[in-house]
Structure prediction request, 360 residues.
Amino acid sequence: MGRGLKLPPYCDHYVDRHGKPRYYFRRTKQSPRIALPEAPWSPEFMAAHAAALKGHVALPPVIGAERSPGGTLNAAIVAYYGSSHFTEGLGATTQKNRRYALDAFRCERGEGGNGVARGERQLAQLDRAHLGKIVGKLKAGKQHAMIKALKPFFDFCVGQMLMKDNPAIGLTLAKKPKTQGHYSWTERDIERFSRRHPVGTTAHLAMAIMLYTGLRISDARLFGPEHVYDGMVRVRPKKTSRTTGNVVEFRLHPDLQRVLRATKVIGVKTYIVSERRKPFAEGGLSNKMRDWCDEAGLPECSAHGLRKAIVRRMLEAGATEYQVAAVTGHADLDEIRTYARGISNARLGTAAIDLIQVGK
Prediction:
């Protein structure tokens, strides 16, 4: 293997049924395998390894897929990854999530781990009954997550005449337990966080940006002077950049403007910067936000909870769902209604009564 039997970090290999070594990247035992080229330490291998280390979604297709037996699940997935349905039709975050789910699905082996990896089997063997058995072993949440990734993939396969129909359609899935999802910050939480991380700190700046813009953490970490002009905020959300392509545009809140002016350390390209005065990586800011919340004694709070908090604030103030969507970029108003579960009924009820004119 070029440099003996040693492989780069997180790399391993197995021998397929044809006697050929297959190399893959796997950060933990719970992580899915990411296929790597067949020549360890080659430029192509190391480029793929570097991309996997960074969690990059645009990983090269599985090398050797063109030599895979025709009609296998592996070959179909590689074709899907290289198609415009995947590369142009899905946002970067969605691509990453779909890769994670599909790679885990195709790498799974039979019971006891002695069977052939599912990806090496013929795609035509995967009918609705077979898929139902696979899904039936999972908990409700994982069932829905798997089908969410598999349905569009099978649609692609049907369109390419690799399958006659989509086996994921018509499956009866277990009902997911009703939850509130990510915890929505309350006004008391925001006050407590602000006491521990006052105006002027990077922690408060990060909290304020997400609270007064509703940006997801993937966009908040990149938020900078280029997104603010004439007192307005204008951002194209990363998650929907390849789907709706919508741009959110609204007035910069005075409280956020005050925080920006008062923050001691602020970046040139991005407002939020690390201790090294460089932009945070997406995972880095998420982890740092977790630390800041824990320091404030708020273990249940998270970055995404701030997005829910601004929705709550706007609805409590009387904003319509369409007005909220103009700020958050939601294309589906049902998601806003889900976020609305945390709003104060007392405040809304009082506002509704106040709308009734005296003497009427």
